[in-house]
Fold Helix-turn-helix domain-containing protein.
Amino acid sequence: MLAAHTDETVRGTRATGQESNSLDQRMAYATVRRLRAKEHVFCEGDEREHVFRVEEGVIAVYKTLPDGRRQIIDFAYPGDLIGLGVIGEHVLSAQATAPSKVRCLAAAALERIAETDAGLALKLYKAVCQELAATRSLLVTVGQRSAIERVAAFLLSLHRRTAPEGAATINLAMRRSDIADLLGLTIETVSRTLTKLRCMGVIDLEQGATRVRLCDLPHLLELANE
């Protein structure tokens, strides 16, 4: 079951001009942290002292359920912010799925700057709106879609968020178990569904299935019911 959460993950926006430059200028002086795969950026219950921007790799943002299971809420990719919130402690955990790099900026400083920097405030507002839209989409995915619809929708989302314009290949910089925890499926179902999509000619798996080439985007959109 998908857990309710505060705005911990904020998707990066392809903004230009003042709103983009403002945050970039602040982050240029932020501390850099390099993370190993499975290393945590922060854990649920930690004091919320910093906001982080993903520079390299992929970060899984997740909620630990009462029975100990993990529900991934989203993946954060380069350009995305994680650790935003309105209370004093993190309500979610953030863990690198692969070797990653983040920049850390004091949360209080960022919030103070946003009070007088309209460009930065606008960027954060846009990003929060995108996150809310993504959360609603995930609720539909987990609650209503079939396995093939879920995997197809995930691949499309990954393509939109990470692939350069015009590129047909995406990197799966996360384990099958991570994808399963996001989509509410078993690892075996994720693997079988990827194989099925390949056999249908919709995708091709490259480099030991760590890269996916989208061979038939219209068909993938149809399968995702988008």
User: Anything to note?
Assistant: Residues 1-6, 12-18 have pLDDT under 50 and may be disordered.
